[in-house]
Amino acid sequence: MIKHTLIASAIGLAALVSVPVLAQGADDLWEVTANITMDGMRMPGAPTRVCARKGNTDNLVPVEDDCRVSDRKTMGNRTTYRVVCTGKDPMSGSGEMTTGPGTYRGMLKLSGKVDGDPVTMTTEYSGKRVGGCTAK
Fold this sequence. Notes:
There is one protein chain. The protein is mostly beta strands. The chain has one domain (2-133). Helices cover 10% and strands 56% of the residues. It has one helix spanning 2-14; strands spanning 27-38, 41-43, 48-52, 67-75, 78-85, 91-100, 103-114, 117-133. A hairpin with a 2-residue loop joins strand 1 (27-38) and strand 2. 28% of the residues are buried.
């Protein structure tokens, strides 16, 4: 179970810090919180700051580097998407995100196997724009 907790924490939070946060600039600085529930155990996340290109919420989906977001469909302020993660413990699933003026929130549900055991993970995330930055 400890391994599951570590994997869930890494998957949910690694991508949130994957975009460098730099000094004030023309892009959007977001404060993001992700709460992960894995096999019934809830793990609250600490707020993280993410710098994203102005108006681009594509990189705000909380996934690790070995995960690919695809099949994005946006209608109004709601976006749905699929996620496939490769690597030692592959997972796949779907999510949705709703955006508002200076805010967004979403949910990502993944399932797969870790060390041969079935795993289901849900990440609920939200963000608010807190300033400017320069995205790389």
